[in-house]
Amino acid sequence: MGAGAAAARRARAGGGPRAAVPARRRRGRRRGRRRVAAAHRAGRVRTDDAHLPWGGTGRVPWALEVTPERAGWRYAGLRVLTLPPGGTVTFDTGGEEMLVLPLAGACAVHCDGVRFALAGRPSVFAAVTDFAYLPRDATVTVEGEGRFALPSTPATRRLSPRYGAARDVPVELRGAGPASRQVNNFCAPDAFDCDRLVAVEVLTPGGNWSSYPPHKHEEDRRHDDGTAEAELEEIYYFEVAGGAPGDPAGPVGYQRVYGGDRPIDVLAEVRTGDVVLVPYGYHGPSMAAPGYDLYYLNVLAGPGPTRTMACVDDPRHGWIRGSWADQPVDPRLPMAGPTTREA
């Protein structure tokens, strides 16, 4: 095997070998990282800073790679791995804990001498999936076919590698009426143990809004009304029903992020494979266009000692929650349940 092929099969999650990239494109990536970090520091994040289209952040072996450095923050990360039939990739987790979450396809995960067979799913809209937890300081091999998300964050504790069964994922129907959505709480704080990492999936029927009312989690504090808020960075990874990663003509959804105490102004048109970064500010709604169901994976992490998703609503729109009592949940929900193929 040549040196290039060997490098493509093995990569360090926090660094590792890079693919050969033209100098102009490398300079563009560096400028992009500096621009995002500078925008966060200056407190003037715009759509071009926070919206990362598919294809703009890849690095062998990852089709998509968002590290804390790339995002201009400290904790939340996400990679997406695309494997052809019979594909195999080996990498080191370094100082990060990670998950392997099938988006489309199935795989086997080898870590610390343990093998997990992930039954996966045909697509994010077809089923709730099983997944695997990877500890820090581990060498991991993933073999199979499909597209796989790997949420990550720096970890202080080294936990054991573990398997998460689809049948054990708490599925929540949240909201009502046109704000109805499905939340798969596979790695929520009360559902699955990690050191710092939190991740959930949200499915929004076409024409509905989710991540609504808009809310924020940018500081650790208890508000005057007793509501707790945590400091959390958040990544939104999107897929739109009928779309394919990298298709510029594919169906779209929309994501809004706007300022609370710090200015941020984002309105992103998203397609399958796109990412929106939320360093701070109110985020929502996530808008599914009529006729096109919307999926997003939320990855959250922050400096607090306790895993949490504590947030506060935009006080101008929090009243929306009270209106749900008189509305039925959208009958199209639930959209997906546990796969029947899991091991």
From TrEMBL:
Q: Which Pfam families match?
A: KduI
Give positions of region: Disordered. Answer: 1-38
Query: What ranges does the record list as Basic residues composition bias?
Result: 23-38
Query: Which molecular-function annotation in GO is an example for this chain?
Result: 5-deoxy-D-glucuronate isomerase activity
Instruction: Provide one Gene Ontology biological process annotation.
Output: inositol catabolic process
Sorted alphabetically, which keywords does the UniProt record give? Isomerase
Q: Where are the transmembrane segments?
A: none
EC identifiers of the protein:
5.3.1.30
Which SUPFAM superfamilies does its entry note? RmlC-like cupins
UniProt-listed PANTHER family: 5-DEOXY-GLUCURONATE ISOMERASE
Q: Which named protein is this?
A: 5-deoxy-glucuronate isomerase
Gene name of the encoded protein: iolB
